[in-house]
Amino acid sequence: MRIVIKIGTSTLAYSTGRMNLRRVEGLCRAMCDLKNAGNEIILISSGAIGMGVGKLGLKGRPSDMPTKQAAAAVGQCELMYTYDKLMGEYNHTVAQILLTADDIRDGRRCENFRNTLFRLLELGAVPVVNENDTVATDEIVIGDNDTLAAVVAADIDADLLVLLSDIDGLYTADPHKDKNAKLLSEVKELTEEILACGGGKGSELGTGGMRTKLHAAKIATEAGIDMIIANGADPDVLYNILDGKPFGTRFIGRRAGGGKGEER
Ligand code: GLU
Fold this sequence. Notes:
Order of helices and strands: EHHEHHEHHEHEEHHEHE
Strand content: 15-25%
Largest sheet: 8 strands, mixed
Helix content: 40-55%
Strand order of the largest sheet: 3-4-2-1-5-7-8-6
Distance between the termini: 20 Å
Bound molecules: glutamic acid
Radius of gyration: 17 Å
Shape: globular
Number of helices: 10
């Protein structure tokens, strides 16, 4: 399977902006194992700004663009250094790909991106993709990595998209506020009712939230790709893919977009 895995800032960093090493180590190990089992792994990693905040000793997520971009430039190095080190321990090679919305919109640049990514997969590397935050401004920004992950998954004809976050999946209501909220294990159609479960708000250092995840689900499922939202707190969650066990909320891909999913 060609699996796109997105790790959110809330999963890989503490609220201090420093990396949650235990968790990231576990996830890297599981991704290497998935690769050893014959899967292709494409990692979409957030956390550049969050890591930069920690490394530069800033008080919190900056609100002005130049400081955000400076933090991203610092944090992106930290991210790649860590992935390289941890996956290198299991003999896997990582490759950095930074994209903006313009790169996706421009036919030729998108083609170059796809060619590079496919070649990296043939060479056995793990592409690690993030938005090119240092140049992405309002006009060319994708804005959040849930959307970026779905766009990439659709562009490269992935079989599965997994969004790892700090929540177990999609609930019928906000589980922090409503104790009767129920986790939905499968979503076959993105009805108005489902979209209304989205709510708002991402984490302190990250960008997303359930709304961007549902937007990603729309892009992925329309491209025929199943998408899973799961809690990245326990790296074993990725082993459930290997074991074929259900986890989180699975959004079922449709054939209408011309992807690989089946009409169900
Ligand atoms: N590109 C941003 C970063 O690496 C993350 C965007 C997001 O959290 O969705 O900090």
